[in-house]
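Anyone able to model this chain together with DAU?
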Amino acid sequence: MQRLLVTGGAGFIGSNFVHYVLSHTDHHVTVLDKLTYAGNLESLKGLPGQRFRFIKGDIADAPLVDELVSSADAVVHYAAESHNDNSLHNPRPFLDTNIIGTYTLIEAARKHGTRFHHISTDEVYGDLELDDPVRFTEQTPYNPSSPYSSTKAGSDLLVRAWVRSFGLQATISNCSNNYGPYQHVEKFIPRQITNVIDGVRPKLYGKGENVRDWIHADDHSSAVLTILEKGRIGETYLIGADGEKDNKSVVELILKAMGQPADAYDHVVDRPGHDLRYAIDSTKLRKELGWQPQYQDFEAGLEATAQWYRDNEAWWRPQKAETEAKYKEQGQ
Ligand code: NAD
Ligand code: DAU
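re: yes, here you go
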């Protein structure tokens, strides 16, 4: 049994990880989460009280972080400002949380000799051409495009430097785009599903030719647990499930899953600096640590996700109007 401190555990991927860990291991979990607009305690309902506790707080609060890290066997660091569009309008919170927050955590982990796993994104590598035969690997040079991805890149580099200079017991993973339950309605897939539920046409940025490499959140969780258990200290592992799809195809699949005509969507203003394509080569994780994704059928996963949003309107409804009002101001 391990005592895990999970930062950002009330967010999308963090909450999926907490559910996954509590049902697949006997670990105890403490979640540290600030409950920003993206955090939702409803995502952590029904967890076993003897093995789970929630602490509301900021990862940049050094005394609180020091106390929590001192009583953990490992830290799994998900907390972040995570949305590219928000970072283009107000970058400051991205610096505070993604850079200073990560710095605060690794200082505590170094002081207490605590195992640390840093969650990051494929966006640190920039983007690829649509016809580029090469995918991102652990050797791809960093080339982030947005305030969000540049602060994630900065946080990765801090962790790498702390490993080399101070012997921090850390691993890093960079994952592709996740989908599944508990994702905030600002993000692409839940935004379109909940638009269709509301009788509103999905909104595609630009031409919709941008490609994302989709992975189910449960596959991300199993990969992180595998790295935590078997990963080599100081190493980076890329996580991906060979799920490349252009945005137009994803919208068409959502419309199909929800019984709407395939062309019932609108093109809207493109995102400035919009990355064209992400694609992950996860050979290292698969060969070295024996990990395999379980969700191979994207269309079935998308149908199940659409059904989850239909069944859980009380979870997302409170965020929907405010999120759409923000997009409307930006012509999106
Ligand atoms: P999210 O926005 O849904 O959740 C972020 C969580 O962090 C929220 O619960 C929020 O309240 C919390 N948080 C924010 N600032 C905090 C602070 N200062 N102190 C404590 N808690 C704070 O994000 P997500 O999509 O679940 O992403 C989680 C992590 O995974 C991020 O590090 C992100 O970069 C990474 N990631 C995301 C994806 C994806 O597709 N969503 C893919 C790869 C990597
Ligand atoms: O690649 C991993 C990253 O995936 C994570 O690091 C980020 O935290 C996560 O938010 C996600 O970033 P993206 O910018 O790729 O995700 P988003 O859901 O915002 O958009 C996915 C694609 O869909 C992108 O090409 C922009 C487009 N899009 C998005 C929205 C919200 C639309 O066409 N219409 C929309 O309404």
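The two ends are 47 Å apart (CA to CA).
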